[in-house]
Every structure is written in structure tokens, then in C-alpha cells.
Amino acid sequence: MSLSVALRHAFPGLDLDVVFEAPSGVTALFGPSGCGKSTTINAISGLLRPDSGRIALDGRVLFDSGTNLSPQERRIGYVFQDARLFPHMTVERNLRYPSRWRRNAGRDFDRIVKMLALGPLLHRRPSTLSGGEKQRTAIGRALLSDPALLVMDEPLAALDEGRKAEIMPWLERLRDEVRLPILYVSHSVPEVLRLATTVVLMRKGRVIHAGSLRDILADPLLAPELGAREAGALIQGRVDSYEPDGMARVTTAGGTMLLQDIHVPAGSDLKLRILAHEVILSRTAPEGLSALNVLPASVTQISGGLVQLALGNERMLAQITPRSIEALELKPGISCFAIIKSVSVVHS
Ligand SMILES: Nc1ncnc2c1ncn2[C@@H]1O[C@H](COP(=O)(O)OP(=O)(O)OP(=O)(O)O)[C@@H](O)[C@H]1O
Question: Do the interacting molecules here have an ipTM over 0.90?
Fold first, then answer.
């Protein structure tokens, strides 16, 4: 299942020319306000007719020079920032509404109600639901329209932090259980970190890069697009065992790390986030440090104050002042040690 997009459109303030592929899983459209994210998803959904291009879903053409399917014909489920439920209908009637004429809809209904744990809410009206419950209902309703693509336009933006935390596991479950491409528009790096597998970075109507989140985060040229403080790696680890003092020994491609506050069983996989400004470099093996995690690395790329390191087959970034880059004579190919001051675990 995949979505293929190539489109051009001109507005007085925007010259849009985007090309990307969204495979199954969550593809985040990420970029500053006004870069053309909504225009892109409106064109994909059939709410806007672009000047030219081709949009296809699993090889089925939704738009090209000779085709322009209506929004209903496209089979796209839409989840907006505000849930947009029918206020006079119960949750159950809201959920059943898009599938009221579809055969086998009953079977899907039971499955989706179970997946999103909507059972206890079925007889309630939207006005009695929390923001998170409303969004869960909106997601269920979008799925019950039997979509081939789910478009989520900042679905958490209107929720407070507590509600966001409540709904995030449902979005992760959706990503893992529903074999659909999900296009997810967001300004939030934490959301993108937790949910996205693919990221389409946009700026001024163009796609500046489309690829895996891990590659973007460890690329010294692209990582700053997510925000200056967000540059840094996302690496894979596995909890090997626990030390008597409770610290976890975590195996990564770059070596073993000792981490605090890990509460999963030995054998569990973890996604580790290591921010570039939490990494210090040394040309020689440091001694007498309080930092527990010092891994051998080699420099692969330098851009601005960001040094990209190879640790086994993982890539990591260190943020270093130009003065230190010069003093340490860092350049591609140089071996060094990465002193990692702090690591956080990205859930799921
Ligand atoms: N209907 C329209 N008519 C004229 N210009 C428009 C229209 N819709 C969008 N634009 C122009 O396209 C630009 C991009 O808008 P768009 O909503 O796609 O950006 P965005 O990346 O989704 O922004 P945000 O993150 O703020 O929602 C706008 O700044 C505006 O100049």
C-alpha cells in the first residue's frame, strides 16, 4: 500500500512543487507555517484541484491530466484538528455514519471499536466526551469509511499535554495494526519522533528531503530543519540485563550503554534519543569522567557546528563549537570518543 504524489500548484503567495512517496505506516509532513502542507493534503484529498501532477494510491490514479476523482471516490479518511463529530448523534451513530451503506461494515465496526476501546463511549454524545475521546471517535469514524489512506491534519494540536499523552498510544497502535499509509501533518517534533517512519520535510512549497526519520535526525544538514535543539540521533538498543544498582545494560550497534530509569524487561527493544548538544568529543579515551557512556566513534561529516559520527552502523550527531572542531583537528575519517551525557527513551 502506498501513496505516490507529484503535484504543482500556484497561489499568489505559494509556488508548490512537491514529489514524494508515502508507504504503509506514518509519513509526517513537516515544515514551517505556510510551506504548503495543507495545500498538499487538500490536493490529495480532492478538496483542491492542483494545476498539474499525478496522485496515485496503490497504483489507482486519483488525479492526473485526464482524471480527477471526487473526494468520495478517493477513499481517504480524514481526521482534523477538531474532531468534527455530529453533535446530535451518539458516538455509535457517528461511527456508523460513513459506513451506513457498506456491506460487511458490522464486522469492521466491532474490530475498530475494540481496537480504539470505544465500547464504553458508544451511547454518549460528543458534548460529554473529553478531547482525547472525541479524537479517538473521529479516528474510528475515519477508519470505518474503509479508507485506502488516512490523512491526519494536526490531530493533537487542539489537545492539552495530558490528552495528547492519552491518545498517543492509540495512534501508535493504529500505525502498527492498520496496514494503511497514514499522512500526518504536524509541527511537533515529539509527535513525529514517536509516530513517523517516513518524514517529508517541506520548505517554501518544495520537498527538501523525504526519507526515514532516523536518517534525517543524524544528518547535519537536515536535522536543523526540525529545530536547532532537536538535532541528534535516534538509535536502536536492546536491554541486555540489569545491574545490581538498577541500571540497565543496553546493547547498541555502537557498544553497550548503561542507562537509568528503564522499566522494561530484559530483552526489550528501545528507541534511544541522543541529542547533539548532549554529546562531547574527545580524541583520546577519557579518564576520570562522571559520564558513564563513552563510545568509540569515527567522524563521517561536519557541517556548521554539527559533527556526524559513525558508531558501528549507527549515525549520531555531536554539537561542537567551531573552535573545538579546530582544536581537536576533527575531519572525516578521524577516530574519537563520544561522551554521551544523557539519553532518553522514545516510547514504543
Ligand atoms: N485558497 C488560497 N488562496 C490563495 N492562497 C492560498 C490559499 N491557500 C493557501 N494559500 C497560500 O499558500 C500558502 C501555504 O498555505 P498552506 O495552508 O498550504 O501552508 P501550511 O504549510 O499548511 O501552513 P500551516 O502550518 O500554517 O497550516 C499560504 O501562505 C498562502 O499564501
Answer: yes
